[in-house]
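Case study 2.
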Amino acid sequence: MPLQDKFRSIFGKQNEPTAPARAQNAPAPGISFLKNQRPAPPAVRPSRGIEQFFFNLQGRVGLSILDLAGASQQNIDFLTSLGHKVYSGNVIRSMEECFGPDPAGQTNPSRIEFFLKSNFDYPSETFDGVLMWDSMQFMGHALLNATVDRLADIMKPQSYLFAFFTMNDKVQEVQSYEFRIQDAKNLLVTERGLRPTGHVFNNRSLEKLFGKFESVKFFLTRDNLREVIVRR
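Prediction:
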């Protein structure tokens, strides 16, 4: 099956909002190249970052939110209960389909453009909020910069992006997670296995990465994850 058709079979139309559908209690399919390990049970994670993300959006309805953790009925239900429109994508799976497991392979310009079109093919200033989760830390330099540029285009002024980055600068692999929204202050997190990092960031390098954005705010945690809120 051609790669583009395979993408469509996985993602469907990326430029249509996701409507609430059947309940989705099972975890998302695993990623084939992650190292085999016994899956840990989901854990509740308090998150100051997600709390700040929803605080910034409160008092408004009908906002457009892009959730890039893969279509999750739990996330869809929570976001639509707030009166927002939800658009879904799966950036981690898309990276595997386009580039394979190694961030060093994320350099081909045509592959990068195909990746961007598959995940971010929206008109300028479409979104009021973007949930990137932990996907950006697995991108190589060329793909990461292209993705940030595209996000700057499709996000509205004064919109917000939420993401995780590892704080451990001594590692070449970090844990990948599946994220589900439990409520406005807590996430349900499931380990998915180790994955090669494309970059390890500190606060200064993240500020440089999001130089086109208005502000970057950090929330440091005890588990070597840096929660980041970026304002467009």
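Residues 112 and 231 are 25 Å apart (CA to CA).
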